[in-house]
């Protein structure tokens, strides 16, 4: 049975000849970086029962285990990808002001 490719995969396949091989050294360095980012460490954390219940509810809506959702939230926070609602509202207001 042949696997079906999504549009992104088809695009890669169609343009495969335009990709260049990398040296073994670069590949080793990239692999090392990826391996390092995949390492995990177990921790214990105390949070309120209310927060844990709300986290579990939100994770159910997202279709994720709650620990995966929590890990994602932490990652987004430390990598400056978690944006506060007030910052989004301020940005929208500035964009509206610039377009008037």
Radius of gyration: 21 Å
Q: Which oligomeric form is depicted?
A: single chain
Query: What profile does the largest beta sheet have?
Result: none
Percent of residues in helices: 55-70%
Task: Give the DSSP E fraction (strand runs of 2 or more residues).
Answer: under 5%
Mean pLDDT: 89
Q: What's the N-to-C terminus distance?
A: 56 Å
Strand elements, count: 0
Overall morphology:
extended
Q: pLDDT below 50 for ≥5 consecutive residues: which ranges?
A: none
Derived structural class: mainly alpha
Spell out the helices and strands N to C.
HHHHH
Helix count? Answer: 5
What is this structure's SSE topology?
Layout: H1 7-14, H2 24-38, H3 49-62, H4 66-78, H5 85-98
Helix pairs in contact: 3-4
Describe the structure.
The chain has a domain of 55 residues. It is 64% helix and 0% strand. The chain is built from 5 helices and no strands. Helix 3 packs across helix 4. The longest helix has 15 residues. The mean pLDDT is 89.
Question: What is the structure about, briefly put?
Answer:
The protein is mainly α.
Keyword list:
100 residues, mainly alpha, 64% helix
């Amino acid at each position: 049975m042949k696997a079906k490719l999504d549009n992104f995969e088809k695009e890669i396949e169609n343009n495969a000849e335009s990709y260049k091989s990398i040296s073994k050294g670069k590949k080793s360095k990239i692999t090392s970086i990826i391996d390092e980012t995949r390492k995990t460490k177990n921790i214990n954390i105390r949070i309120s029962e209310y927060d844990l219940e709300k986290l579990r509810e939100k994770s159910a809506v997202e279709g994720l285990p709650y620990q995966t959702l929590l890990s994602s939230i932490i990652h987004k926070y430390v990598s400056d990808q978690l944006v506060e609602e007030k910052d989004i509202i301020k940005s929208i207001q500035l964009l509206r002001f610039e377009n008037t």
